């Protein structure tokens, strides 16, 4: 695929993670299964700790909000192996988390708990964050040219920092100038990108956003942000009109920085 020049007005690059800096398979085949396999044990072990209590509190508030909004929510089943109030409460939290994951929910409550579980896995060495080999060298080049680099992902800021702090490339957190998650807004809403521009301290047209998801690309475009769609193995196949509308890259090394600050 040919080289692509980013707009000369660009002063900041905003990067998605899944399917952009990191293989989708890492998230689907390693991170998410880890939560499912270790969730009940994690809750049982940490149940009385303040951090876990806060996570559970947020999850319960999410369930209450879903019920108020008449959204679908898990129906609690009777588990004959549950005998104590604590076991029952843990069982309900497990059901809620697994249901939200199956529904691909992006709730802050879910992401916070997942982030805390992944922290334990990363720091123990059981998981290392995967990064495409073209990512780190490219970001170093961009930074040498005076560009700032930020992450915007549906995963929590803590989960982002864990992935890049305990990666196969080592700790590469110093490559990034900041991190954004859904607490600033959904990635499919234009207003989120306007808020990010404001937080960074630049105009939307000074940001170039790299993502594999065209719904996110469309929202960023609506906010006035420049967009490049990243095509990686395993990413969702683009429709013909999407392929013709967006500038596409298969590697960060294709980006040309001619005219950038």
Structural notes for this entry:
This protein is of the alpha/beta class. The protein is 46% helix and 11% strand. The chain has nine helices and eight strands. The strands form two sheets. A six-stranded parallel β-sheet has the order 4-3-2-5-6-7, with helices on both faces. It has a two-stranded parallel ribbon with strand order 1-8. Strand 6, helix 9 and strand 7 form a beta-alpha-beta unit. Helix 1 packs antiparallel against helix 3, helix 4 packs parallel to helix 6 and helix 7 packs across helix 8. The radius of gyration is 20 Å and the shape is globular. The mean pLDDT is 91.
Layout: helices, strands, pairs:
Elements: E1 4-5, E2 12-15, H1 24-46, H2 50-68, H3 85-102, H4 108-123, H5 135-144, E3 148-152, H6 157-165, E4 178-180, H7 190-200, E5 207-211, H8 214-222, E6 226-230, H9 240-245, E7 247-249, E8 255-256
Parallel strand pairs: 1-8, 2-3, 2-5, 3-4, 5-6, 6-7
Helix pairs in contact: 1-3, 2-4, 4-6, 7-8
């Amino acid at each position: 695929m040919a080289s692509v020049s980013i707009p000369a007005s660009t002063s900041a690059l905003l990067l998605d993670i899944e399917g952009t800096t990191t293989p989708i398979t890492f998230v689907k085949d390693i991170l998410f299964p880890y939560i499912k396999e270790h969730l009940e044990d994690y809750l049982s072990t940490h149940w009385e700790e303040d951090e876990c209590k806060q996570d559970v509190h947020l999850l319960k508030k999410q369930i209450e909000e879903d019920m108020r909004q008449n959204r679908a929510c898990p129906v609690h089943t009777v588990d004959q192996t549950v005998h104590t109030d604590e076991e029952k409460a843990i069982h309900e939290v497990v059901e809620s988390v697994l249901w939200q994951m199956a529904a691909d929910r992006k709730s802050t409550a879910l992401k916070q708990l997942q982030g805390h579980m992944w922290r334990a896995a990363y720091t123990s060495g059981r998981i290392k964050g995967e990064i495409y080999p073209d990512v780190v060298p490219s970001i170093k080049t961009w930074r040498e040219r005076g560009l700032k680099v930020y992450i915007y992902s549906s995963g929590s800021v803590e989960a982002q920092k864990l992935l890049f702090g305990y990666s196969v490339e080592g700790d590469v957190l110093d490559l990034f100038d900041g991190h954004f998650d859904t607490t600033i807004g959904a990635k499919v809403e234009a207003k989120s990108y306007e808020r990010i521009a404001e937080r960074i301290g630049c105009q939307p047209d000074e940001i170039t956003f790299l993502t594999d998801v065209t719904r996110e690309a469309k929202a960023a475009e609506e906010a006035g942000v420049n967009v490049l769609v990243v095509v990686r193995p395993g990413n969702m196949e683009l429709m013909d009109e999407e392929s013709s509308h967006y500038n596409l890259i298969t590697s960060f090394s294709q980006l040309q920085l001619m005219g950038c600050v």
